[in-house]
Each structure stands twice: as C-alpha cells, then as structure tokens.
Records
---
Amino acid sequence: MTKVQTDFKLGSMHCRNRVWVASGTFGYGDECLDLVDVNKIGAIVTKSLSLKPRDGNPPPRVVETPSGMINSIGLANIGVDRFLEEKAPFLQSLDTSVVVNIAAGSVEEYREVLERIESTDCCDAYEINVSCPNVKEGGLSFGTNVRMTAEITRELRPLTGKPLIVKLTPNITSVSEFARAVQDEGADAVSLINTLVGMSVDVRTRRPKISTTTGGLSGPAIRPVALAKVYETIRSVSIPVIGIGGITSANDALEFLITGAEAVEIGTANYLNPNVAVEIAEGITTFCQENDIRNVSEIIGTLQTDQTISVVKSWM
Amino acid sequence: MYALHMRSFYFASTIQPGQFINIKVQSGFYPLLRRPFSVAQTQDDVITILFDIVGEGTRILSLKKPGDMVDVLGPLGRPFTLPQSDTVPLLVAGGLGMAPMPILTKWLKANGFKNTETFLGARSKDYLVDYQLENVHYATDDGSQGYHGTVVSLLDQWFTDNRGTEVTVYACGPNPMLRGLQNLLQGRSLKGQVSLECVMACGIGICQGCPVESVNSTKRYRLVCNDGPVFDIHSVVIQ
C-alpha cells in the first residue's frame, strides 16, 4: 500500500490533513468526543466567537429544504471569556489544529476578541467571519462591503503572526473582488463559501419557516455554487483558498482540491454524521492510493480545462 | 399510527425513559437531516418508536419492512427523573405525545411506583393511542370516548377529586396542551417534568438549532436536544 502524505502547512499552522470541520457545525470540539476521533480531523474551526455571549435568534432556527437546510442561529455563542476559560484548555490538549472563528459587530470588537485569544496562544489560526447572514449588525453587512472587508483585514493583520483566514460570503456579485481585497491587506488565506441567503414558507400558515424570514442555505444543494465561486477565486488570487459548501464525501472534497482548494471545510454533513470529516479524510487517502499519488498536494489545482469531456459515465 | 421495532442490544440496554434517537430514514440526501423520535419501549434487544405519517421522513419510515436496516444515532438527550418517594406519578399525554409513556410506565414500576395514573387526550377516539399504557383516563375534544374536553381539564377534575394526594407529573404533547398544563400546575403549586418536541438539525448540541426559551436562567435559550428534551415544566417558555 502506498504511503500517502496528507499533511500540509498554511503559514505557521501544520495540519494533519486537508479536511477541516466548518465553524458552527462542530461546536467547540468537545460535544462530539464519544462519536469522533477528533485528532483525525485536519483542523477544528470553532463556533463563531463574539466579545460578549450571544443568545442567538428565536426559534424556529432551522428548516430542511431540498438537499439542504436553512439556518438562522444568529451566532449564538458563549463569548470569548467563557471560551478561554471553559473550552480553550480542552482544544489545546488536542493533537489537532484549532482555528478560532471570530464574528463581531464592529472593527473594534473583532480586534478585541482577537487580542484576547492571541494573548493565550490557544489556537493555530484565525478565521474571520465577515459573512454571517443572520445578524443585523456586522456579519453580512461587513461581508458585502469590499471596503469594510478590507478594513477589518487591515486592522487585524498586525495583531497576529498566525494565519489569518477571511471567510467570504457568496451573497455578492464578484467574490474574487473581495478575495483580492483581503489578499492585498495581508490575509493568509480565504475560505468560501458561507451560506447563501435562502427562504422557505409554510403554505398552511403562510408564515416563513424560520423566525428571521430569511436565513443561510447550506448542504449539498449549494455545492456547485460553492465550487464555481472557489474556481473564480483561485483564478484571481495567489493566497490559498479553502473550499466550503455542501461537501459530504471524499469525492465532493476532491472536486474542490482538484479545482485548486488547499483544504476543505465540512459543514452541514456533520449533522448527519459527526464522523464524516474523518471518513472524508480517509477517503481522500484511499483515492490517492488507488491512483498511485504519494502526496495529496499532487492533486491540488490539477483541473483540466483544455478539453471537453465527451462522456461522464457516473451520471448514469 | 405506526410502531417500528428495531433490534439493537446496545440501544435496548442503554436508553432511558424520555431519551430520543435520531434516525436517518434512508441513505442519500433526501431527506437530508435525521428525524428525532422518543423511544416508546424497550424489550430484550428491541426498541420501539411510535409515529404517524406527518411528512416525508415518517412516510419513508412507514414503508420499512422486516429485515431493513436503519441508521440510528443515540441515545440522546436528558431522560425523565424518578418521582419523589411517596408520590403518585401522573403521566399526562396529548395525541402521540404518549410516545415516551410506555417505557416511562415500565421504569416507574420497576422502581417501586406501582400506582401510576395516565391521562390521555386526543381530538377524538380515533386519535387515542394507549399502546402499553396502564390505568388510563381518556379525554377527547369531541366526547367520542371518555371525558368530553381536554386532558388538562380532566386532570384538573382528578386533582379536585383526589385532594391531598402527593403527585409527580410527567407530560408530553402538543404545545397548547402543555401550556394549559403549565398553568394548571402553576395554579396548584405542583411540579412536573415535560418532554418537548422541536425541529432539530443535529440532535447532539452542535448546531444550536433547537432552542427553547428558559425562565429564570442566566441563559436565554436552552437546547431541546442537549439540555432536554425533558425539562422542569416551569423552567421553559412553551410557545
């Protein structure tokens, strides 16, 4: 059996493999201990942290839609202080990389959260959430404004030597414009896509199925959109791109890696199977063994665009 | 009403009354999410759930045949707790809210509570499901069986007729019924445990998708999947 090298480095962060769990879909890592060997995950991206605890939105917060779901959690989280007290020691004890995701309502708040976490050295990288569609202030209003997105990156960049990843929204015209803007401000990587704004109505009651009327659509339904956005971004920036959106299997993940994503994040699929990220990482290794690939890096960005494929057999 | 029996020694030997399981009704992505069900009974190495067809998930489950496999995550959630000794357990259920009551009845008996009373309400007699329940008092909205009125009114009458009896209330059912029960118990300064239903995405506390508003708590919301589904009936706002 071919030994496959799966690890890689993103700046100063070393990851065991290229399959991460996405923010908000794996809690703070300690909820799934009896279901998952978390040390086999490439990196755990934490639930978004804000300066103060957030209650989140009223119920109903989730609804299933075709091959997907709409959520409006509203960044419910325990706040940075309780995170540092209750969750950080556990995360530090893991033999896997930890990416702290930060969401805030102002540039000041982003800075303060990052500084507090930075002072404890409890993580390996930061993912900056400028793209949550479910909170009134901050969130999407930052992420849909290229000037604000750039400003947040500029303000945070000097505060840490760790990789700074900016998570981008698809709810804009040109995601590559945003990716270029944060690259210019010194971001180490971009991750995309966050959820697409979606809506569903109960025709019996004529009411929206979630309390905030619209929410964030995720799941397999958005995967082709995500892949196209990743493709667009990869062609316009030189920093690593982390692919997110509806990935449920090793095959799905490979689509993103072949397109050029340096790593992928698994989101909604964790809800169906909390161990899915481990299984996807193993599936990628198996794919490499079957194709005599020694290092997963050999797959990345190998998309062939010079010829039209005449027959795609797998659709049958 | 459907009863689905699943063979699993692990689940049958670990599930406690009030806990639930989260079922992927078929492989693939339709439906996408798991569906949560109270466990109604365990017997040897078999667990049983009860359900009506109310949507695609339950429709697909209703088509299962002997020998089929289902993907089950569990046991999940906080179970019911034992009553105070020297009290009579009262099990109060509306419609298929009776689902966790059979296993609860068995467990209470095994723990020395021989005299349980069950109050079961439904729209009409066609909707009364008394599967493996004991000492049942029936109530129907249309009077087609038992007491003509709500199960909460029936319980109120029982309290009046049985003054001085120390009780512990266990409840599950539609929210309007549970709100009525909450008011009744509040008025009579009685405690109770309630099992709540909620749309869930993960069932294990990671998605934060199933909040219930809490009373007198530093946290505004608690999660039905992890903090519940069984709550002190006076600790939650039932919408």
Note: The radius of gyration of chain A is 19 Å.
---
Amino acid sequence: MRPISYARATDVFEAIATVLADPKSAYLAGGTTEIDLLRLDVVRPTALVDINDLPLDQIEDLDDGGLRIGALARMSDVAASPGVAERFPMIAQALLLGASPQLRHMASMGGNLLQRVRCSYFRDGVSPCNKRVPGTGCSALQGINRGHAVLGTSEHCIATHPSDVAVALVALDAVVHVEGPNGARAIAIGDFFLPPGETPRLEHPLEHGDLIVAIEVPSSPVARTSLYLKVRDRESYEFALASAAVALRVEGGVIADVRLALGGIATIPWRAHRAEQLLMGARAEQATFARAAREELADAVPRGLNAFKVELAQRTIVRALETVVALGGAI
Amino acid sequence: MSKAKQHEGVSSPTVGPLTMRGPGTTNVSLSVNGIARLVTIEPRVSLLDLLRERLELTGTKKGCDHGACGACTVHVDGRRVLSCLTLAITCEGREVSTVEGLTEYEELHPMQRAFITHDAFQCGFCTPGQLMSAIALLEEGHASTDAEIAEWMSGNLCRCAAYPNIRAAIRDVRHAIGGHGHAAD
C-alpha cells in the first residue's frame, strides 16, 4: 500500500474541513472497500480522515412511520434493529444477505451506498477501464462479463452495482442526507446513482468534501409486506446474479400498491418503474407478474456471457412477487 | 423535505482542518488481549500486519489480505471484524482480542477444546479465524440450527472443508452454555 497520512475526526464539520483542505484526501468509514482498493492501488488517496467516531450511528424509528439511519450505523446493527425488521423487512433481509458477519460489523450504511464495483477489470488496476482511467475503454464488453449488467449500460461501462441494501432503499424512495462545503442537502435516492453513460467515472452527485450523514426512509405501510430475494452462485457470502426487492399489497385479488427494484443486473440499483406501472391495478397472478417482468427487461442489452441474466432476472421478479403474495401480501 | 433532526455533535461550520499524522511513523496506543501496547507505526499498517509482524502475535493468519477468507478474524471492542481491512491506527484506544487471548491460565477456551474434540480442522490455517468467529457467533445468538450456524459462519472459509466438524464443535459449546447460543440465555 502507498503511504498515507491519517487523522481521526470527532465532529462533522471538522471532518469536512479536513477533507476539503486536501484534494487527495478521502473519508475512511468501515474501510471494507476503501482499504482493499488502496492496497490494490485502484484508488489513490494520500490522506484518510477517519470518521468512525462521528456521532452518526443512530437508527431512529420516526414518529410518522419513517426510518432515519445514521450514515455510520453498521449493516449488522441496522439489520438487527427491531423497527427495521418489522416495518421494512426488505431492508433487513437485503442487509443480512450481503457480505459476511465480519464485514457487516465493519461496513457503514453510507459507505455501502458508495462501495465501488466488483468488475475484475476495474479492480485489477491495469486493464483498460473507463471507470478507473477515463478514455481507456471497457475491457468487460468483450471480456469475462458473466457478472456484468444488462440494464443501464453504455458502450463505456457495463459494471454491475454491487449493493443489496441500496436496491431496497431505491424501492422505498429513500433520501440521502449530505453535509458538505455548500451546506446540507437532501438527494432523492433515485437521483443518487448515476448510470455510466459517457462518464463512468461519475457514480453519484457528491463532490469532494461532501459527507453522507444519514439515509431517511419515508413511511411506507406497504413495506411491511416486503421481501428481498437474492439469486447467486453460492448460498451465502456472494454477490447477486439477480435480486429483487418487492413490497406488495393486494386487495380483492388486485394489486393495490407495489414497489419493485432489481439488483445484480444493472449498473445502478434499478427501480422497475415499467413493471410497477403494469402491476398497479392488475390481477395478482402469475401471468401478470410474467408480463411485467418481460416488459421491465425489454431493453436489456446482453453481452455474451451475461445473456442468461435476462431470463434469470424475469424469473427472480416473478418468484419474488409470488412469494410476497404467499407471505400475506393478499388481504 | 427533510424531517431530520440536526445531528448531535455538530459544532459551528467554521472549524478548521485537523492535523494529519504520518505518512511517516507515529505513536499509537491500543490494547491487545488486555495488555496496553504502544507502537510506532505508519498509518498504512493494517491491524493484521501489526499483530503478526510487530507484536509477534502470529496466531491471526493472513489468508487473502482482501477481506474474502476470514482467516484474519479478530475482535475489536467485542465485535468480530477482519484485521486485514482494518488499519491499526484506527484501533487507537480500542480493545483488540486475538486467538492468543483465548487461553486463561494455560487452559484452552471451551471452543478450542470443542474444535479438538470434533477434529474441526485439518491443516489448521483457518482455525484461529474460525475460533474467533465461532465465539462471537455464540455471543451474537445466531447458532440455533446447523443451517443458521452455516450461514453465520460463511465469512470463514476452510479449504480442507472441515465445515461439518466446525458446526459440531459450535453446537457442542452452544449446548454447554444452553439456549440458542447466546451466552446470556
């Protein structure tokens, strides 16, 4: 690992001022991605500002039914919070199906949103990669791309967004609260993840010095009947090949409310707007689910080894919807 | 749009930048297995390298050095974490526990005894990490069934595939302390 300098902050504004003072500095939270990529020489900050002592680790059940998660709350603590499991099961499930117990103890929620892609060409530090070195090309287009995205891709990057919990948060219209050089602001999570387009290096709207302080999930009664289904090569401790976060309410056989987002198949946590539109007001039955899934994947662009994901994603959506109906989504 | 409370601990936005330490060596004090240690290290040194290369605590193993295998599992402030992805300097003022700290008065920890009884290892390289994870698992209370044990031990790989015997050892210690694996049950 290259040499780095270090400071530990105990105050949000002190942390921001310290990062702002040095354009080559970065925040250090759980470090599960940051330290790995530093050692691989893929990211090259020369100074780390340790934010783990900032008072941003609270998990609050809000009176209006919403949830406020401090940016430094650990994945394991959020998953174990009774209010989260009861009111937002898909969030707790997505967290517990991610990483390993050790990593979940370390990784912060803010860091989870900012984790970098697992594309081996990005991580190897030498292959052409537009995300790591803009303009060098995308090695995955013709390479080993079995794990790569089929939605939200461009000719410049097809790396899959790796987060599970971000998929649930996108389905629930979470809001990312940021403190930074230009003051506090709130970013709708639907605007937070940027598809690669022509600029794969830009993954989110944060600027140098911006610090996520909290993630807020608005009250969502439908989320009580929700589920995160993750399909992967191994039963545990593996990234998704396809996943679905589904919340559903059925009244008299008809879908009265639905939230659906997909993971493992897109360059960003993918809100399935098209499928949601088709599902709303339709009969809660297999044919409807299959049609919605087909429609959501209609624009998928498979590239060689990942072609199977187009079908796998549809089956994942259908199974997730069927499962949540069986769980009690029908009233 | 924000209903958020102002976060606590925030002072005036006019505070200045902190003084940085390093990249050269700096003094760091931390506690390892209950013993206060003062070390002079660069900030880039991982907790794993500090333990193995400087403190001569080579029980904790370096498998992948990427956070993938779990061989380097230790406890920091009572929670199991990966020491390869932890910078040692971030443990300043914290309590680190390693496999060397499990024995008391030369008596093996019950989990160590159970691993021996059940032949829960072959080459032994992953064993310190398995032990630290297994002990934390019982504290966390996620050991009620074999399936649950398997899921909550999935961050510790064993290339000798001693998994059934590791689960048997954990089951045994769980039975000995009762309940679902939580020491307080």
Note: Residues 5-53 of chain A form a domain with the Uridine Diphospho-n-acetylenolpyruvylglucosamine Reductase; domain 2 fold (CATH 3.30.43.10).
